[in-house]
User: What shape does this take?
Amino acid sequence: MLASIIQNLFNAFQWGSFYSLIALGYTLVYGVLRLINFAHGDIFMVGAYIAFFIATAILGMAVSLPGWMVLAMVIPLTMILTAVVGVSLERIAYRPLRRKGAHRLYVVITALMCGLVLENGNLALLGASRKSFPELVDKVVYTVGDLSMTNLKIGVVFSAILVFIFLHFIVTKTKIGMAMRAISYDKFAVPLMGIPIDTVIVFTFILGSSFAGLAGLLFALSYPILDPYMGAMIGWKAFIAAVVGGIGDIRGAFLGGFLLGFVEILVVAVFPSTYRDLIAFAILMTILCIKPTGMFGVAGTTKI
Assistant: This one.
């Protein structure tokens, strides 16, 4: 019984890592722009497809390369190209509305439409058939007593932790991070201090989208079947994780993702899998009823 619980906890760490990586992108954009980028889950999907085409192209050109070397090339290219997609959305869809002073509701609707464009654009270009991601890493199973874990699961968890440490360093210890925090406090006073808002916003989208691309690659390595709608549900769940953690706070997004992963896996371990989302979301809704701002969120004030 104890071994089964520990095994489920480790599986929860893997799912929580996916949610955390995507939730960090949600909370970054919201923290700077007060914008919920509902297209972020579909950027995760785009990242998985970008990784698929890069890996396929590299394997086609140099079949003799070992998988780990191909993976070492796929990771930065996927993150860079996914960041380009995220920045393109910001430049084409969000920036014109922001400069016209559009109401936040219209920006949220635009974000939803951007997600639909990415999903249906993928469907139109590549068709409805699913893609099988190439196996770049040989799966190795480590067994400790009754507990078994694979090198992929360990890699996913460590990747999420390293991303969080890296992001926390940028936000708290660098000038660009200080500018991001300044914009979240008062975006009208920041330009008067000589800080280029557009540059900071672009950097924010680069970070968030590249993390979503990394999450897409790691997800494709772990579950190597891709389809155009794979980012919809996981994106919504990551958003809920960010809200439960306290959207706008990177610690909250990180821990909220793991919390959702734990709740889902433990629910499946006790109840039928069909009850997973019902019970998991009921628990998360209860947490929000007790603490509406999330675990690390702070109630905001509005001057009238």
